[in-house]
Amino acid sequence: MQKLVEIASNVSNGTLSASAVVEQYLAQISAREPEIHAFNLVTADQARLDAAKIDIDIKAGKEVGALAGVPIALKDNMCTRGVETTCSSKILQGWKPPYDATVVTKLRAAGAVIVGKTNLDEFAMGSSTENSAFGPTRNPHDISRVPGGSSGGSAAAVSAGFAAASLGSDTGGSIRQPAALCGVVGVKPTYGLVSRYGLVAFASSLDQIGPFTNDVRDAATLLEVISGHDPMDSTSIPQPAPSLVSVLDQGVKGMRIGRVTDLPEGCETDVLERLEAAFDALRSAGATIVDVELPSLQYCLTAYYLIAPAEASSNLARYDGVRYGNRVDAADLNAMYAATREAGFGEEVKRRIMLGTYALSAGYYDAYYGKALKVRRLISDDFARAYKDVDTILTPTSPSTAFKFGSKTENPLAMYLCDVFTIPTNLAGHPAMSVPFGVGLDSMPVGVQVLASTLGEQAMFKVAAELERAS
Amino acid sequence: MAEKISQETVIKVSRLARLSLTSDEAEKMTSQLAGMLEHFRDIDALDLADVEPMTQPYPLKNVLREDVVAPSLDRDEVLGQAPAAESGRFRVPPTIGFDV
Q1: Is B59 part of any domain?
Q2: How far, CA to CA in Å, does A262 sit from each of A158, A206, A294?
Q3: Whole-structure pTM value
Q4: How confident is the model at residue B99 (pLDDT cuts 50, 70, 90)?
Q5: What's the complex ipTM?
Q6: Residue of A17, A71, A200, A341 with fewest CB within 10 Å of its CB?
Q7: Is B74 within 8 Å of chain A by CB?
Q8: What span, in angstroms and rounded, lies between the C-alpha atoms of A447 and A434?
């Protein structure tokens, strides 16, 4: 696997042409994409044009950015002007956004070459990409297994060498869980660190964009490029983003790493063994392991699966067959809305809209949504207490390695349990990242999750870099 | 917490959500939602009386931009992606004179 930073450096100094790089990645896509199905759309022609433009700029002595010539894939819920953006849903199939997401503008300005739009669970609702309207993505390590989700296409694209890096979105674990299952690095930044302008909204108080890469340095580099305040996103944090690459070699000597003593049950033992190995590695590198209690964590699934569907039911009201996407004609407006939405949304999306509408409806609001918001506060308070004693916390990313297709599709709750270790971070608005740390009994990748407090990305990346050195 | 969700409630909620579920879908949805809501009763054990609800993780208030003219989306490009448009506007089916 080529490192993003090496590609950018070699393209910038003229030892490698951006065109040659993009051809190499397109060749890999041609070879393996038919079995993996990481993409909804490969933008090969545009990628070649963009790469040629970078080569011309370099020959002309023009300044090129930190990602010069780096092939990057985008989750297909990020708007790309004039290029189909579907969210893997029939309701948006064929839609060409009239604007670019801020992250897309930033990537282009930094010289990145966008190679395509990656598959996801419809509207990012799922943990396996099996909910895509266009068919599932397969795990490059074993195509009989899921890549995780919802950003399964973005994780698989990096794992299979279809792109040097990719972007995903994470509402309850949708970057970190597929990163763990596909053996790549995946980062969910602090809520508000990366602009969401142009990211199709799922649950607005939880969604955040972040990178998938082959290593920690690449993740730090890419996150630095896409971070920063954006006036187009009212939830964007109005202060400078932390410097990340500069801390990677600082080590973890003297750092305090939290071990959760009351971790929710249900984690496979081989995954827990890798977590213990990670603690050992950090201890050997000079960190102190400190026990922390997060008693409210056991309620995170309930809080999340009330709050996220409630917000989704509101956000997805916009798919009404009027302004964009597809319409099913009917005699009057309300019949048109219902026919359009019935035909356009898949089963899981309907289930979450129903759950969310129910949780918000008169008579049930206080019992469900209102309570969930209070539980969210308890979880946030638990973390605040814990972070008085520790700099970061280590947990598994996913309770298991990649599972087989179909093994959880008939039981929505079993699928939701995949997110039990990743959800708390989104509820609190904190950063967390998954770092590959060995394999399980089935030889599939295992990820260890590093959590930190709001804007604690520097501590998180120091620990991640140390884990990578030890793995 | 509330009683077990009925199919009648599911159908009512589907109307609120502007979904025209088939009867098979409504039946399956009723049993799946009932299962989830049962699981969600775990939070009933918590004493939440004095807990402040948390609606967002990073509290920013009154985020306003400077009141200066800036480019907006191109109208033709936007309408070009609509299912139906006419004379610079979105076109919709009749909105009055029908049962809602």
Answers
A1: no
A2: 34, 24, 7
A3: 0.97
A4: low
A5: 0.94
A6: A17
A7: yes
A8: 6
Among A329, A103, A60, smallest CA distance to A207 is for A103
> Who among B13, B51, B58 is closest to A354 (CB)?
B13
Q: Measured between alpha carbons, how far is residue A353 from residues A170, A373, B33 in Å?
A: 19, 18, 11
pLDDT at B3 (0 to 100):
67
pLDDT of B1? 45
Q: Does the residue B66 lie in any domain?
A: no
DSSP structural state of residue A80: B
**Is the CB of A373 less than 8 angstroms away from the CB of B53?**
yes
Which residues on chain B are in Cβ contact (under 8 Å) with A323? 78, 81-82, 90
pLDDT tens, A165-224?
999 999 999 999 999 999 999 999 999 999 999 999 999 999 999 999 999 999 999 999
CATH C-level class of A4-245 = alpha beta
Task: With beta carbons under 8 A apart, name residues in chain B contacting A412.
Answer: 32, 35-36
Q: Please, are residues A95 and A319 in contact by the beta-carbon 8 Å criterion?
A: no
The question of whether A380 is a catalytic residue gets the answer no
A408 is a catalytic site residue: no
Cβ(A119)–Cβ(A138) under 8 Å? Answer: no
CB A146 within 8 A of CB A181: yes
**DSSP H or E stretch at residue A253:** none
3-class SS at A213?
A: strand
Query: What is the 8-class DSSP label of residue A438?
Result: E
Instruction: Identify the band that residue B95 occupies on the pLDDT scale cut at 50, 70 and 90.
Output: confident
Q: What CATH number should be reported for the domain holding residue B30?
A: 1.10.20.60
Q: Which residues of B touch A380 (CB under 8 A)?
A: 54, 57
CA–CA distance, A437 with A448 (Å, rounded to integer): 6
**Is residue B77, in this structure, part of any structural domain at all?**
no
**Cα of B85 to nearest chain A Cα, Å:** 9
Number of structural domains (chain B) is 1
On whether the CB atoms of residues A432 and A176 are closer than 8 A, the answer is yes
Q: Which residue type sits at B96? A: I
Is A174 part of the annotated catalytic residue set? Answer: yes
Chain segment A333-382, per-residue pLDDT in tens:
999 999 999 999 999 999 999 999 999 998 999 999 999 999 999 999 99
